[in-house]
Amino acid sequence: MQITWGASTSSYQIEGAWNQDGKGPSIWDAYCREEGNILHGDNGDVACDHYNRYAEDVGLMKDIGLQSYRFSISWPRVIPKGTGTINDKGLEFYDKLVDTLLAQEIDPLITLFHWDYPLALIHRGGWLNPDSPKWYADYVSVVVERLSDRVTNWITFNEPQVFINEGHLNDFHAPGLQLSLSDTLRAGHHVLLAHGLGCQAIRAHSKQVARIGWAPAGKTWAPASDQPEDIEAAHEMTFGVPNKDLFNDPWWSDPVVLGHYPEAGIQRYGNAMIDFNPEDMKTICQPLDFFAINLYFCESMAKASPTGPETIQYDGNIPRTMMDWPITPEVLYWSTKWNYERYKLPMIISENGLACMDWVQADGAVHDTQRIDFYASYLKELKRAKDEGVDITGYYAWSLMDNFEWSQGYRQRFGLIHVDMDTGKRTLKDSAKWYRNLIATQGAEL
Ligand code: GCO
Fold it and tell me: What separation in angstroms does the CA of 348 have from each of 235, 292, 394?
Protein backbone atom coordinates (compact mmCIF):
# COMPACT_ATOMS: atom_id res chain seq x y z
CA MET A 1 0.00 0.00 0.00
CA GLN A 2 1.87 3.07 -1.30
CA ILE A 3 1.20 5.69 1.38
CA THR A 4 3.30 7.70 3.85
CA TRP A 5 3.90 5.67 6.99
CA GLY A 6 4.42 7.50 10.27
CA ALA A 7 3.72 7.70 13.97
CA SER A 8 2.14 10.39 16.14
CA THR A 9 2.70 12.03 19.49
CA SER A 10 1.73 15.30 21.16
CA SER A 11 3.72 17.88 23.12
CA TYR A 12 2.16 17.62 26.54
CA GLN A 13 2.11 13.83 26.40
CA ILE A 14 5.84 13.32 25.73
CA GLU A 15 7.96 16.49 26.14
CA GLY A 16 8.11 17.01 29.91
CA ALA A 17 10.33 20.03 30.71
CA TRP A 18 7.11 21.64 31.89
CA ASN A 19 8.85 24.78 33.14
CA GLN A 20 12.27 24.48 31.47
CA ASP A 21 13.92 27.19 29.34
CA GLY A 22 11.17 29.74 29.74
CA LYS A 23 8.11 27.61 28.94
CA GLY A 24 4.90 29.03 30.43
CA PRO A 25 2.33 26.84 32.21
CA SER A 26 -0.43 25.16 30.21
CA ILE A 27 -3.93 24.30 31.40
CA TRP A 28 -2.77 20.67 31.68
CA ASP A 29 0.06 21.64 34.05
CA ALA A 30 -2.59 23.21 36.27
CA TYR A 31 -5.28 20.52 35.77
CA CYS A 32 -2.86 17.74 36.80
CA ARG A 33 -2.21 19.58 40.05
CA GLU A 34 -5.87 19.50 41.03
CA GLU A 35 -6.32 16.50 43.33
CA GLY A 36 -8.30 13.66 41.76
CA ASN A 37 -8.15 14.74 38.12
CA ILE A 38 -5.47 12.30 36.98
CA LEU A 39 -5.10 8.61 37.85
CA HIS A 40 -2.31 7.99 40.38
CA GLY A 41 -1.80 11.79 40.54
CA ASP A 42 0.38 11.55 37.40
CA ASN A 43 1.35 14.66 35.43
CA GLY A 44 3.37 15.74 32.39
CA ASP A 45 6.17 17.46 34.31
CA VAL A 46 8.72 14.94 32.98
CA ALA A 47 6.65 12.56 30.81
CA CYS A 48 9.07 10.92 28.31
CA ASP A 49 11.53 13.82 28.74
CA HIS A 50 11.44 14.12 24.98
CA TYR A 51 12.45 17.79 25.27
CA ASN A 52 15.89 16.61 26.43
CA ARG A 53 15.97 13.22 24.63
CA TYR A 54 14.61 14.18 21.21
CA ALA A 55 17.81 13.25 19.35
CA GLU A 56 17.67 9.69 20.79
CA ASP A 57 13.99 9.47 19.90
CA VAL A 58 14.56 10.56 16.31
CA GLY A 59 17.22 7.86 16.12
CA LEU A 60 14.60 5.31 17.20
CA MET A 61 12.18 6.67 14.57
CA LYS A 62 14.94 6.00 12.01
CA ASP A 63 15.41 2.49 13.40
CA ILE A 64 11.71 1.85 12.82
CA GLY A 65 11.98 3.34 9.34
CA LEU A 66 9.32 6.03 9.80
CA GLN A 67 8.85 8.18 6.70
CA SER A 68 7.03 10.89 8.65
CA TYR A 69 6.52 11.96 12.27
CA ARG A 70 3.45 13.81 13.53
CA PHE A 71 4.08 15.90 16.62
CA SER A 72 2.55 19.01 18.16
CA ILE A 73 3.91 22.38 19.21
CA SER A 74 3.44 23.50 22.81
CA TRP A 75 1.92 27.00 22.50
CA PRO A 76 3.06 28.09 26.01
CA ARG A 77 6.58 26.85 25.26
CA VAL A 78 6.70 29.25 22.30
CA ILE A 79 4.65 32.14 23.75
CA PRO A 80 4.64 31.63 27.55
CA LYS A 81 1.62 33.84 28.21
CA GLY A 82 -0.16 32.87 25.02
CA THR A 83 0.18 36.35 23.50
CA GLY A 84 3.03 38.85 23.48
CA THR A 85 6.62 37.91 24.31
CA ILE A 86 8.07 35.02 22.32
CA ASN A 87 10.31 32.47 24.08
CA ASP A 88 13.12 31.95 21.59
CA LYS A 89 14.46 28.92 23.50
CA GLY A 90 11.09 27.28 22.95
CA LEU A 91 11.25 27.87 19.21
CA GLU A 92 14.87 26.70 19.26
CA PHE A 93 13.74 23.27 20.51
CA TYR A 94 11.40 22.83 17.57
CA ASP A 95 14.09 24.13 15.20
CA LYS A 96 16.46 21.41 16.42
CA LEU A 97 13.78 18.73 16.33
CA VAL A 98 12.85 19.58 12.72
CA ASP A 99 16.51 19.68 11.65
CA THR A 100 17.17 16.32 13.32
CA LEU A 101 14.14 14.77 11.61
CA LEU A 102 15.11 16.12 8.18
CA ALA A 103 18.69 14.88 8.64
CA GLN A 104 17.16 11.38 9.00
CA GLU A 105 14.83 11.98 6.03
CA ILE A 106 11.76 11.89 8.27
CA ASP A 107 9.08 14.35 7.13
CA PRO A 108 7.55 16.50 9.92
CA LEU A 109 3.74 16.76 10.15
CA ILE A 110 3.09 19.47 12.73
CA THR A 111 -0.10 19.77 14.78
CA LEU A 112 -0.35 23.39 15.91
CA PHE A 113 -2.77 22.71 18.76
CA HIS A 114 -3.04 19.45 20.69
CA TRP A 115 -4.76 20.69 23.88
CA ASP A 116 -1.93 22.30 25.92
CA TYR A 117 -3.51 25.77 25.96
CA PRO A 118 -1.60 28.56 27.72
CA LEU A 119 -2.87 28.89 31.29
CA ALA A 120 -2.61 32.69 31.07
CA LEU A 121 -5.25 32.71 28.31
CA ILE A 122 -7.80 30.75 30.33
CA HIS A 123 -7.54 33.55 32.87
CA ARG A 124 -8.56 35.91 30.03
CA GLY A 125 -11.63 33.83 29.15
CA GLY A 126 -9.97 31.22 26.99
CA TRP A 127 -11.97 30.08 23.96
CA LEU A 128 -14.97 32.06 25.24
CA ASN A 129 -13.11 35.31 24.57
CA PRO A 130 -14.01 36.70 21.10
CA ASP A 131 -10.30 37.59 20.71
CA SER A 132 -9.28 33.92 21.14
CA PRO A 133 -9.27 33.15 17.38
CA LYS A 134 -6.78 35.98 16.79
CA TRP A 135 -4.61 34.87 19.73
CA TYR A 136 -4.35 31.49 18.03
CA ALA A 137 -3.65 32.94 14.57
CA ASP A 138 -0.88 35.17 15.97
CA TYR A 139 0.72 32.12 17.64
CA VAL A 140 0.46 30.15 14.36
CA SER A 141 2.16 33.01 12.52
CA VAL A 142 5.15 32.87 14.91
CA VAL A 143 5.60 29.11 14.45
CA VAL A 144 5.14 29.17 10.67
CA GLU A 145 7.56 32.11 10.27
CA ARG A 146 10.19 30.07 12.12
CA LEU A 147 9.70 26.57 10.68
CA SER A 148 8.05 26.87 7.27
CA ASP A 149 11.35 27.07 5.39
CA ARG A 150 11.64 23.35 6.28
CA VAL A 151 8.07 22.25 7.13
CA THR A 152 5.23 22.05 4.62
CA ASN A 153 2.58 19.90 6.34
CA TRP A 154 0.38 21.47 9.03
CA ILE A 155 -2.62 20.38 11.09
CA THR A 156 -4.46 23.27 12.74
CA PHE A 157 -6.28 21.44 15.56
CA ASN A 158 -6.39 18.00 17.11
CA GLU A 159 -9.85 16.77 18.07
CA PRO A 160 -11.94 19.83 18.97
CA GLN A 161 -14.64 17.31 19.93
CA VAL A 162 -12.44 16.26 22.86
CA PHE A 163 -10.87 19.44 24.16
CA ILE A 164 -14.10 21.45 23.82
CA ASN A 165 -16.60 18.77 24.88
CA GLU A 166 -14.55 16.95 27.53
CA GLY A 167 -12.80 20.06 28.84
CA HIS A 168 -15.48 22.75 28.52
CA LEU A 169 -18.90 21.03 28.68
CA ASN A 170 -17.56 18.29 30.97
CA ASP A 171 -14.79 18.08 33.54
CA PHE A 172 -12.99 15.02 32.17
CA HIS A 173 -10.19 17.05 30.57
CA ALA A 174 -8.49 20.37 31.20
CA PRO A 175 -9.62 23.05 31.89
CA GLY A 176 -12.70 21.26 33.33
CA LEU A 177 -15.04 24.26 32.99
CA GLN A 178 -18.46 22.52 32.87
CA LEU A 179 -19.98 25.38 30.83
CA SER A 180 -23.58 25.54 29.66
CA LEU A 181 -24.29 24.00 26.25
CA SER A 182 -24.66 27.51 24.78
CA ASP A 183 -21.33 28.68 26.12
CA THR A 184 -19.69 25.46 24.92
CA LEU A 185 -21.14 26.06 21.46
CA ARG A 186 -19.76 29.61 21.60
CA ALA A 187 -16.29 28.36 22.59
CA GLY A 188 -16.49 25.80 19.78
CA HIS A 189 -17.44 28.51 17.29
CA HIS A 190 -14.35 30.48 18.29
CA VAL A 191 -12.21 27.36 17.74
CA LEU A 192 -13.68 27.03 14.25
CA LEU A 193 -12.91 30.70 13.58
CA ALA A 194 -9.40 30.11 14.92
CA HIS A 195 -9.00 27.22 12.47
CA GLY A 196 -9.95 29.53 9.60
CA LEU A 197 -7.70 32.39 10.71
CA GLY A 198 -4.95 29.82 11.35
CA CYS A 199 -5.20 28.56 7.77
CA GLN A 200 -4.95 32.14 6.51
CA ALA A 201 -1.95 32.78 8.79
CA ILE A 202 -0.16 29.66 7.54
CA ARG A 203 -0.66 30.66 3.93
CA ALA A 204 0.36 34.28 4.62
CA HIS A 205 3.56 33.38 6.50
CA SER A 206 4.72 30.11 4.97
CA LYS A 207 7.98 30.38 3.10
CA GLN A 208 6.87 27.65 0.71
CA VAL A 209 3.64 26.08 -0.49
CA ALA A 210 1.94 24.73 2.64
CA ARG A 211 -0.34 21.70 2.85
CA ILE A 212 -3.00 22.19 5.53
CA GLY A 213 -5.46 19.85 7.18
CA TRP A 214 -7.13 19.31 10.50
CA ALA A 215 -7.56 16.20 12.69
CA PRO A 216 -11.02 15.65 14.21
CA ALA A 217 -11.85 12.57 16.25
CA GLY A 218 -13.84 10.03 14.29
CA LYS A 219 -17.05 8.89 16.03
CA THR A 220 -18.31 6.04 13.86
CA TRP A 221 -21.18 3.59 13.96
CA ALA A 222 -20.57 0.21 12.30
CA PRO A 223 -23.34 -1.33 10.17
CA ALA A 224 -24.94 -4.18 12.16
CA SER A 225 -24.94 -6.27 8.95
CA ASP A 226 -23.88 -5.95 5.33
CA GLN A 227 -27.47 -5.19 4.32
CA PRO A 228 -27.71 -1.83 2.46
CA GLU A 229 -30.34 -0.52 4.89
CA ASP A 230 -28.07 -1.18 7.88
CA ILE A 231 -25.13 0.46 6.11
CA GLU A 232 -27.30 3.52 5.47
CA ALA A 233 -28.44 3.50 9.10
CA ALA A 234 -24.81 3.48 10.32
CA HIS A 235 -23.92 6.26 7.90
CA GLU A 236 -26.87 8.35 9.12
CA MET A 237 -25.84 7.90 12.77
CA THR A 238 -22.19 8.68 12.01
CA PHE A 239 -23.07 11.99 10.40
CA GLY A 240 -25.90 12.80 12.77
CA VAL A 241 -25.83 14.78 16.02
CA PRO A 242 -27.31 12.19 18.35
CA ASN A 243 -26.77 13.98 21.67
CA LYS A 244 -26.98 17.46 23.17
CA ASP A 245 -23.20 17.60 23.29
CA LEU A 246 -20.40 18.42 20.88
CA PHE A 247 -18.82 14.98 20.65
CA ASN A 248 -19.72 14.26 17.05
CA ASP A 249 -18.09 14.73 13.68
CA PRO A 250 -20.29 16.86 11.41
CA TRP A 251 -20.75 19.76 13.84
CA TRP A 252 -17.06 20.43 13.36
CA SER A 253 -16.10 19.21 9.90
CA ASP A 254 -19.14 20.44 7.98
CA PRO A 255 -18.38 24.15 8.73
CA VAL A 256 -14.66 23.62 8.07
CA VAL A 257 -15.09 21.82 4.75
CA LEU A 258 -18.65 22.53 3.58
CA GLY A 259 -19.10 26.04 5.02
CA HIS A 260 -22.19 25.49 7.20
CA TYR A 261 -23.26 23.86 10.44
CA PRO A 262 -25.25 20.65 9.94
CA GLU A 263 -29.02 21.15 10.20
CA ALA A 264 -29.15 18.03 12.42
CA GLY A 265 -27.08 19.88 15.02
CA ILE A 266 -29.04 23.11 14.85
CA GLN A 267 -32.20 21.05 15.46
CA ARG A 268 -30.55 19.02 18.24
CA TYR A 269 -29.21 22.06 20.11
CA GLY A 270 -32.48 23.96 19.80
CA ASN A 271 -32.62 27.07 21.96
CA ALA A 272 -29.06 26.48 23.19
CA MET A 273 -27.86 27.31 19.67
CA ILE A 274 -25.85 30.53 19.52
CA ASP A 275 -26.33 33.50 17.23
CA PHE A 276 -23.36 34.14 15.00
CA ASN A 277 -22.47 36.28 12.02
CA PRO A 278 -23.07 34.23 8.86
CA GLU A 279 -19.96 35.89 7.45
CA ASP A 280 -18.00 33.81 9.99
CA MET A 281 -18.41 30.79 7.73
CA LYS A 282 -16.32 32.54 5.06
CA THR A 283 -13.48 32.64 7.58
CA ILE A 284 -14.04 29.13 8.97
CA CYS A 285 -14.30 27.38 5.60
CA GLN A 286 -10.83 27.68 4.11
CA PRO A 287 -9.41 25.47 1.32
CA LEU A 288 -7.75 22.36 2.79
CA ASP A 289 -5.21 20.01 1.24
CA PHE A 290 -6.05 16.90 3.28
CA PHE A 291 -8.52 15.60 5.86
CA ALA A 292 -6.81 13.91 8.80
CA ILE A 293 -8.86 11.81 11.21
CA ASN A 294 -8.11 9.92 14.43
CA LEU A 295 -9.77 6.50 14.40
CA TYR A 296 -9.70 3.78 17.07
CA PHE A 297 -13.03 1.98 17.20
CA CYS A 298 -16.72 1.97 16.40
CA GLU A 299 -18.34 2.39 19.77
CA SER A 300 -21.57 0.76 18.62
CA MET A 301 -23.43 -0.61 15.60
CA ALA A 302 -26.51 0.68 13.83
CA LYS A 303 -29.34 -1.15 12.13
CA ALA A 304 -32.37 0.04 10.18
CA SER A 305 -35.75 -0.05 11.89
CA PRO A 306 -39.23 1.27 11.01
CA THR A 307 -38.61 4.25 13.33
CA GLY A 308 -35.17 5.05 11.90
CA PRO A 309 -31.59 3.96 12.75
CA GLU A 310 -31.34 1.91 15.93
CA THR A 311 -28.10 1.74 17.92
CA ILE A 312 -26.95 -1.75 18.88
CA GLN A 313 -24.35 -1.96 21.65
CA TYR A 314 -21.50 -4.46 21.39
CA ASP A 315 -21.86 -7.27 23.91
CA GLY A 316 -19.27 -8.55 26.36
CA ASN A 317 -17.85 -10.96 23.82
CA ILE A 318 -16.09 -8.43 21.60
CA PRO A 319 -12.31 -8.16 22.23
CA ARG A 320 -11.40 -4.89 23.96
CA THR A 321 -8.27 -2.85 24.60
CA MET A 322 -6.93 -1.73 27.97
CA MET A 323 -9.00 1.45 27.44
CA ASP A 324 -12.05 -0.85 27.21
CA TRP A 325 -12.49 0.21 23.57
CA PRO A 326 -14.00 -2.51 21.34
CA ILE A 327 -11.63 -3.79 18.67
CA THR A 328 -13.43 -3.01 15.39
CA PRO A 329 -11.07 -2.98 12.39
CA GLU A 330 -13.96 -2.05 10.09
CA VAL A 331 -13.77 1.51 11.45
CA LEU A 332 -10.80 2.14 9.14
CA TYR A 333 -12.95 1.10 6.17
CA TRP A 334 -16.28 2.76 6.89
CA SER A 335 -15.12 6.03 8.49
CA THR A 336 -12.40 6.65 5.91
CA LYS A 337 -14.77 5.83 3.01
CA TRP A 338 -17.65 7.94 4.36
CA ASN A 339 -15.51 10.97 5.24
CA TYR A 340 -13.86 10.84 1.81
CA GLU A 341 -17.25 10.70 0.10
CA ARG A 342 -18.56 13.62 2.20
CA TYR A 343 -15.56 15.95 2.16
CA LYS A 344 -13.76 14.88 -1.03
CA LEU A 345 -10.25 15.47 0.38
CA PRO A 346 -7.19 13.20 0.45
CA MET A 347 -7.39 11.25 3.72
CA ILE A 348 -4.72 10.81 6.41
CA ILE A 349 -5.25 8.48 9.36
CA SER A 350 -3.47 10.71 11.89
CA GLU A 351 -3.99 8.35 14.82
CA ASN A 352 -4.79 4.66 15.18
CA GLY A 353 -3.58 2.20 17.81
CA LEU A 354 -4.39 0.63 21.14
CA ALA A 355 -3.33 0.41 24.75
CA CYS A 356 -2.06 -3.04 25.71
CA MET A 357 -0.84 -4.57 28.96
CA ASP A 358 2.83 -4.08 28.00
CA TRP A 359 5.92 -4.68 30.10
CA VAL A 360 9.59 -5.51 29.47
CA GLN A 361 9.84 -9.27 29.96
CA ALA A 362 12.67 -11.35 31.39
CA ASP A 363 14.33 -11.58 27.97
CA GLY A 364 14.41 -7.77 27.77
CA ALA A 365 11.79 -7.63 25.01
CA VAL A 366 8.15 -6.48 24.90
CA HIS A 367 6.22 -9.20 23.07
CA ASP A 368 3.12 -7.19 22.19
CA THR A 369 1.55 -9.73 19.82
CA GLN A 370 -1.91 -8.23 20.36
CA ARG A 371 -0.76 -4.85 19.03
CA ILE A 372 0.69 -6.53 15.94
CA ASP A 373 -2.58 -8.37 15.36
CA PHE A 374 -4.54 -5.15 15.91
CA TYR A 375 -2.51 -3.19 13.38
CA ALA A 376 -2.59 -6.01 10.80
CA SER A 377 -6.38 -6.35 11.03
CA TYR A 378 -7.06 -2.59 10.99
CA LEU A 379 -4.66 -1.94 8.10
CA LYS A 380 -6.30 -4.67 6.03
CA GLU A 381 -9.53 -2.65 6.32
CA LEU A 382 -7.71 0.55 5.36
CA LYS A 383 -6.30 -1.23 2.31
CA ARG A 384 -9.85 -2.35 1.40
CA ALA A 385 -10.96 1.29 1.36
CA LYS A 386 -7.93 2.37 -0.66
CA ASP A 387 -8.42 -0.48 -3.16
CA GLU A 388 -11.99 0.73 -3.65
CA GLY A 389 -10.72 4.18 -4.60
CA VAL A 390 -10.51 6.17 -1.34
CA ASP A 391 -7.59 8.60 -1.69
CA ILE A 392 -5.60 7.62 1.39
CA THR A 393 -2.20 9.29 1.52
CA GLY A 394 -0.89 8.62 5.03
CA TYR A 395 -1.15 6.52 8.15
CA TYR A 396 0.24 7.46 11.57
CA ALA A 397 0.31 4.92 14.40
CA TRP A 398 -0.70 6.24 17.81
CA SER A 399 1.71 6.30 19.35
CA LEU A 400 5.44 6.40 18.68
CA MET A 401 6.07 5.79 22.37
CA ASP A 402 4.22 5.16 25.62
CA ASN A 403 3.19 8.54 27.01
CA PHE A 404 0.90 10.54 29.29
CA GLU A 405 -2.62 9.41 28.44
CA TRP A 406 -4.47 12.47 29.83
CA SER A 407 -6.79 11.58 32.72
CA GLN A 408 -5.41 8.00 32.67
CA GLY A 409 -1.89 9.25 33.33
CA TYR A 410 0.76 6.59 32.54
CA ARG A 411 -1.62 3.69 33.13
CA GLN A 412 -2.23 3.20 29.42
CA ARG A 413 0.58 2.20 27.08
CA PHE A 414 -0.09 2.97 23.39
CA GLY A 415 3.49 3.09 22.14
CA LEU A 416 5.42 1.16 19.54
CA ILE A 417 8.28 1.96 21.93
CA HIS A 418 8.07 1.04 25.62
CA VAL A 419 9.14 3.83 27.98
CA ASP A 420 10.14 3.15 31.58
CA MET A 421 8.70 6.30 33.15
CA ASP A 422 11.09 6.08 36.10
CA THR A 423 14.35 5.71 34.16
CA GLY A 424 13.27 7.00 30.71
CA LYS A 425 14.67 3.81 29.13
CA ARG A 426 13.26 3.19 25.67
CA THR A 427 12.67 -0.38 24.36
CA LEU A 428 11.37 -1.09 20.85
CA LYS A 429 8.39 -3.43 21.25
CA ASP A 430 7.95 -6.35 18.85
CA SER A 431 5.27 -4.23 17.14
CA ALA A 432 7.90 -1.60 16.25
CA LYS A 433 9.92 -4.29 14.47
CA TRP A 434 6.80 -5.55 12.74
CA TYR A 435 5.94 -1.97 11.66
CA ARG A 436 9.51 -1.53 10.35
CA ASN A 437 9.01 -4.52 8.04
CA LEU A 438 5.55 -3.33 7.02
CA ILE A 439 6.95 0.07 6.01
CA ALA A 440 9.93 -1.49 4.20
CA THR A 441 7.58 -3.70 2.17
CA GLN A 442 4.89 -0.99 1.80
CA GLY A 443 2.35 -3.24 3.43
CA ALA A 444 2.87 -6.17 1.04
CA GLU A 445 1.58 -8.63 3.64
CA LEU A 446 -1.77 -6.83 4.06
C1 GCO B 1 -6.89 11.47 21.22
C2 GCO B 1 -5.65 12.22 21.32
C3 GCO B 1 -4.46 11.44 21.81
C4 GCO B 1 -4.77 10.27 22.73
C5 GCO B 1 -4.98 8.99 21.94
C6 GCO B 1 -5.29 7.82 22.87
O7 GCO B 1 -7.20 11.05 20.11
O8 GCO B 1 -7.59 11.37 22.23
O9 GCO B 1 -5.32 12.77 20.07
O10 GCO B 1 -3.74 12.44 22.49
O11 GCO B 1 -3.69 10.06 23.61
O12 GCO B 1 -6.06 9.12 21.09
O13 GCO B 1 -6.44 8.08 23.58
Answer: 20, 4, 5
Q: Could you tell me the CA-to-CA distances from 424 to 42, 48, 87, 409, 421 in Å, in that order?
A: 15, 6, 26, 16, 5
Measured CA to CA in angstroms, residue 257 lies from 82, 86, 158, 195, 244 at distances of: 27, 32, 16, 11, 22
pTM: 0.98
Q: Is 166 in the pocket of ligand 1 (CB under 6 A)?
A: no
Chunked into runs of 10 residues, the chain (446 residues) has average pLDDT values of 97 98 98 97 98 98 98 99 98 98 98 98 98 98 98 98 95 95 98 98 98 96 98 97 94 98 97 97 98 97 97 96 98 98 98 98 98 98 98 98 98 98 98 98 93
With CA atoms as reference, report the closest residue to 138 among 202, 74, 213: 202
Fold of 4-440: TIM Barrel (3.20.20)
Pocket of ligand 1 contains residue 15 by CB under 6 Å: no
CA–centroid distance, 410 to ligand 1, in Å, is: 13
Letter for the amino acid at 108?
P
